[in-house]
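Recap quiz, item 2
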Amino acid sequence: MVGRMSTTGVAEESIHQGIVPGYLLARLARSSQFAHAAEAARQTLIKGRPEYRAALELSVDSNGDLIADVQAAPTRTVYDTHNTEQLPGDKVRGEDDPTVKDAAVNQAFDGLGDTFRMLLGAFQRDSLDGGGAPLNATVHYGEKYDNAFWNGSQMVFGDGDGEVFTGFTGSVTVIGHELGHGVIQTTAALEYQGQSGALNESCADVFGALTEQYTKDQSADEASWLIGEGIFTSAVQGRALRDMLHPGTAYDDDELGKDPQPADMTHYVRTTEDNGGVHINSGIPNRAFALAATAIGGKAWETAGLVWYRALTGGLSATADFTEFAQATITAAADIGASVETAVRDAWIAVGVVEGGVIKDASADRAPE
Amino acid sequence: MPQQIEPPSDGSDATGDADRIVVAVVRTGGIAGLRRRWRVEPDPEQTPEWVALVERCPWDEHPDPAVQTGADRYVWSIHAVIHDTQHEQVLPDALLHGAWRELVDAVRAADTD
């Protein structure tokens, strides 16, 4: 969301973000030179300041005109439950606050910002709901709590037990994954069961991976494609929670066992546990995305990510299975170009969702639900 | 062919020994998607304590899975055999409190393998 004004008085979008300081709004409201901006400022002052924020960047162009770029900005709040399970806990850092001593708080805060910037930069999406929703996170949830989760309105980090997991705030892919669930919740709202649940998990992994790659400015070839790298302790024989490019290879540990993710439909796992294996069978669409992104090349968020995002936000049903999602991505890819469509189709062929160029009916492979 | 994960093989469904007490807990889900399992088969002198822990749980209730919103929450599968009586319950993490939480915490603490 960008508002752009120049001294010629052309307001390409009205001002409605809350970051514009009150004194500037008041000054603009009295302006006779910037008629449109003045009216927008007056309306903003009349309606009251919105709760969400934006960034205002002022510059002078080659004609000497003042350029004001108004761009969405995050509204982050981090809470601390002090090892209890009473959410949200005490507020320990807000958007305007400096860093604090607690590293977990700062990591969570930075990760929320990284995810916000990826969503805005890659997809022009203003926060999770596209409308500037605040980003809230709680750290130090529970005692030695071995998880990070999205509770429907905020993300929550445990500290880990110190034996298998270190804390969860140190991985930007984990933070991007959890906030990705917030995006999914406000778009396709994929049901958290069976194949639609596995798509929910996979799309969250895509958001997590893209957040890391966008933050590091990595190409698809440079990316690790790992989710949760570094959150295992050194005692665990494993690199990460999941490997999107090579599902089933992230860990192989005496205590935890082997990464159970399948890489294709031949090895689809039928189970009633884990909501029908949502964290297991997500390996199949995960690999499709990583294969498509690496085949297309360049920055994954620019093309493959855009295809997946358009499929997710373009009318996908809440009960979508792998075939419906594959078709949606192929359709979105075709809108970009033939080579992109081919890369996406080939990726779904590689994982067995598309066979012989035809979308396969995966119902025979579906777990009992 | 699709693979199939077998139901938890925790020994809690064995009914050959009328005095046997077994409690097993399987945790799935979470962002890691790791399957963790804990099991306890207490010594006879600990029987009253474990019977009390198990019988305090509302096994006949039907938890509403919709109570657990969001994603990456745990799902707990709890199995118990008290003499000849078998109990089984699947609980979303959001409902793991009270007597359920006490039972699960006790099993996890007792299973130190």
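Chain A touches chain B at residues 146-153, 165, 168, 174, 177-178, 181, 184-185, 192, 200-201, 204, 228, 241-242, 256-257, 260, 262, 265-275, 277-280, 365, 367 (CB under 8 Å).
Confidence is low (pLDDT under 50) at residues 1-18, 364-369 of chain A.
End of item.
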